[in-house]
Amino acid sequence: MNAVIAIAVALLVLLLAGAVLLFLRLYNDSVRRADEALRMLAAERSTVDQHRLALRRYEVAFASITGRGELGEQMLVETARSLGLREGIHFSLQTDLAGGGAARPDMLLMVADGRRVPVDAKMSMACWTEAIETDDAEERLEALRVHVRNIRSRAADLAAKGYQRWADAIYGTIMFVPSDAAVVAALDTDQDLLRWLLDRRIFLCGPTGFAVVASAALFAATERALADDVETVRSQAAVAHRSAGAAVDAVNLSSTHLQRFLSARRRELDALENFRAAVAPLTEASASPTPIAAVRRVEELTANTGTNGQEPPLD
């Protein structure tokens, strides 16, 4: 009986020890999971703080014309470069058109014949952002109306600056908005907005519309470059033709002089031959052992040169 009780006690002790070990393991796992959750929570809080700071910077940037211009210009440049346009060749940034800084669009697109297209990128997007973030229909409509008023205000400022006086490719100004949805929302909110903008020669467009305009400018610049290259090749061909004509004239002139020289040389040789024939009786009368050497002809000189590969000695 005592043995049975001892065995039961031992089993109970083992069970208690196993339960304690299991409890300790579960406790350690829960502590580890709690620590991991705390680390994840801290990381999420850090991310939220970073997003809040970034949002604050964007709010500050959008609150000023300079900030909006920098952000819009950055998106303009990225869109233009993604289409293959190069700064200094197809477009320029912050170009002073009138002098003194009174007319300085964010971008100028270069097209054919030295014409330029002004592009402005200082449109505010704050109200449109509020419109898409709110869930209230009335607040959304009011934010869109303010968005339309901002577009009209900026368009009036651009029309007053009159960029087309110096950049007259389209006799107007492109007002770039960084979102196609913002453009569509404004046009849907105010049905008269498009006509009002066109009356003032202001062309409202988002990234897609600007891509179309920039591609057309790139095509025009490429056509202009090809035309310039063709004109350069044509002018160089004309210069080469004149040079070839002058070279042929020089060869013809030298050939004429050479023919005259050969003709005079033949006459000289004939005269020498006649003189030799006239002197021959005197040589015979003087009983000279050495006769007068024969006069060499040009044909003989040429034959000797071709046979021996060396020029004959001069007499």
UniProtKB/TrEMBL annotation:
The keyword Protein biosynthesis does not apply. It comes from the Bacteria. GO terms for biological process: DNA recombination. The keyword Coiled coil applies. Keywords: Coiled coil, DNA recombination. Belongs to the RmuC family. Involved in DNA recombination. PANTHER family: DNA RECOMBINATION PROTEIN RMUC. This is DNA recombination protein RmuC. It comes from Labedaea rhizosphaerae. The lineage of its organism: Bacteria, Bacillati, Actinomycetota, Actinomycetes, Pseudonocardiales.
